[in-house]
Every structure is written in C-alpha cells, then in structure tokens.
From TrEMBL:
Entry cofactors: pyridoxal 5'-phosphate
UniProt entry keywords in alphabetical sequence: Hydrolase, Pyridine nucleotide biosynthesis, Pyridoxal phosphate
UniProt key word ATP-binding: no
Entry protein name: Kynureninase
Gene name linked to the record: kynU
Amino acid sequence: MQFENSRKFARQLDKEDKLSKYRDEFIFPRVNGKEVIYFVGNSLGLQPRSAKKYVDEIMKDWAELAVEGHFYAEKSWWDYHERFSEKLAKVVGANPSEVTVMNTLTVNLHLLMVSFYRPSGKRYKIICEEKAFPSDQYMISSQVRFHGYDPDDAIVEIKKRDGENNFRTEDVLEKIKEVGEECALVLIGGVNYYTGQVFDMETITKAGHDVGAFVGWDLAHGAGNIELKLSEWNVDFAAWCSYKYMNSGPGNASGCFINQKYHNKKDIPRFEGWWGHNKERRFLMEPEFQPEPTADAWQISNAPILAMAPYLASLEMFDEVGMPALIEKRNKIVAYLEFVLHEIDKDVDSTFEIITPAEQENRGTQLSVFLHGEGKELFRYLMDKGVITDWREPNVIRLAPAPFYCSFEDMYNFGQILKEGILSKQKT
Ligand SMILES: *Cc1c(COP(=O)(O)O)cnc(C)c1O
C-alpha cells in the first residue's frame, strides 16, 4: 500500500480499521485537556473501561458474602484463576491445561527454574542474551549462585555482532552447539525489550533440545503482541507479565506456560502449595500433596482475586477480538509509523535510525529509534505535548502503538509534533 503522510490519509486508514471502535473501550490519560498519544503499551497497557466493573463485582461479593464468596460469588473465588486458562491459551498458542495465571513474572521465572534449571555434573550452564532485561539478569545470576556455581562461568551470553543492532539466529544456534552438553537451560526474552526483535523461537527451541537442554522463554514483550505457538514449538516453559500488551493493570498477575509433557511427572521438582493440590480434595486438608494434572500444579497460594479481576476483563476483550485481527492491524499501524518517521526524517536535519528489524516477521508492535544528535530534551518536549514515549539511554525512544487503542491519526499527529520539536530546537 502507498502511504501518505497526511491527516486525511490517516483518517481514511482509521475509517477502514475494523478495530477502531475499541479505542473507546480504553481510558486515556489527558495532557492539557487532550487525550495523550500513548506509545507505551509495551510498558503499561491502558485501562479497559470494563476493568472497573470486574473489580466492583468482587468488592460487592466480598461485602455481601464475605467468606462465602469463595463458593457463591458471581464468579467464585476458589477457582477464579481457572477462568483464564482457555482464553489465555489462545493468546499464546497452547492447550488450556498448559496455561495458568499466578504471582508475578520474575517470581514465576524463579519458580519455573526450580523445575527446569537442575544443574548436575557437566551440565550446568545457562544460555541467555547479552543485556537481558535487568530483572532477568539478576534472576539468572542468583539462581546460578544458589546452586553453587560462578555466574562468570555458568552464564553464557549470546552476543550481537559488532556494529549490528540485532541478534542473528545463526549465532544463537552456533552458541548452543558450542556449549553443547554443558548447557542445562536456554532462557531468552522472546521479544527483546530494547529493540523489539522477535527471536525465532521454534528453531532455537529445537536447537536447545538437540543438545539436551530445557528451553524457556520470557514473553513479557511477546504475550498479546506477536503470534505464539508454544505447544507446537515444543517449548518447555514460558512466563509473561500481563500489564504490558495485555492491559491488566500495574503489577498484575503473570501467566505461565508449562508443556503438558511435564504435568504428570512424579519426579519433577517444584515448590508446592495448596492451590496446586488436586482441586476436588483441596479443602480436605490432607497431609500429602496431590498435584493437579495441569499447569495449575505450579500454583502455590490462593489467588489475589481483586488483582486478577481487571486482567480477566482485559482478557475477555482479547478473546473477542482474537490475536489474528490484532496482528493484522499491528502490522499496518507499525508500517505506517515507520513510514511517517522516514518522512519526518527527510524534513528535518536529523538522522533517525530504526534499530528494530525491518522485516515484519522479526518484529512486533515496537519500533525502537535511535535519535542521533537528539537528547532527553526532545523526550520531555514530546511529554509536554502529550506524546508518551519511553526513553532509554543513550538516546533511544521506544514506540509501541498498541493496535487495540492507537489510531493511524495518532501516528500522523506524532510525526507533526516530533517535527516541530526538532525544528524548534534547531532554531534556538
Ligand atoms: C517487564 C519485564 C519484566 C518485569 O518483571 P516483573 O517481575 O513483572 O517486575 C521482566 N522481564 C522482562 C524481559 C520484561 O520485559
């Protein structure tokens, strides 16, 4: 499609957009009385209007039923978390039994490593990407030390080539082969948080299995953003937070995928609690743990119902729209944003360098842009004008136009504001 950098053209795209009506289902913050242009759905998704109703319902049930709410609430609490599995399984390409919702992301990765990082003998190394999200670095390093190894020896980082912005699949495969039978676990962010690069998860998972390692994925930036087929790719485990693309609210519960081949393994180590116990017998308070025959066996505590309510509200919308429609719009709006950036770059004496892969299959919603010659003042200027972006040192802005609620006109308006911001600085 031939794009045009004009308001008229952007409005036409919005008119043709089948998802445009969902914009009104979200609440936008305002700056100077106007709704912001929100590019940080990859950090904290906007609040769905329906979230409040779901929370209010719990507050009402708690007030009116108190403890009886566990069984007699509108949506009973004892099995509240089970309401997520089927819908969330569609988002990540899994069987419902392989998906559960609990705790928060880094906590879940630690818990999953109890099961899937079991170093012994020669096999004790973890392969991850260089400059992983800090929480992942701390998590991996502390796990390695917990097992008595030296992080400098036990953590093997995949590196980018000099002068390149993204990882090459061939280099990842090469590294896995090289570490070979010393590799206990491959654990990578499926979508890189800094560049937005999508890893070839199917190929890398297979390569990890070929050397006898477990393979897990941190999908913080993947869930609700890209097409995932965790079952088909034979991934061992994955976890993601829900407050980024999945719009569940700050710090909300994390989703986990645990491949069904591990569900009935008697000898799999796991940290256990009563919410993972056979649900029919949970309240019999028997002394011996009987795991649920699903990913729910990894549940520990009773679920934080109030926190989960907005996540459920949001998930209902994902279910209504479906990932294919979201991905279709995502591809178009990201391509349009990329076009607008290139057009603005021609108009101003500046050089933008998009460090996110140019190919659609290697990226999701996020474009990370190096603003050569620009500083943090530009970021502040954008903020003042109601454009919320994410700034990362040294001078990268991350732009993620979430397809649920961002419009093509937002992309056009952003381009105009960016241009004014750069030109006004060049004049002074
Ligand atoms: C956002 C993000 C996290 C956040 O972890 P929490 O435990 O939810 O605070 C972790 N890892 C990655 C890769 C992320 O992008």
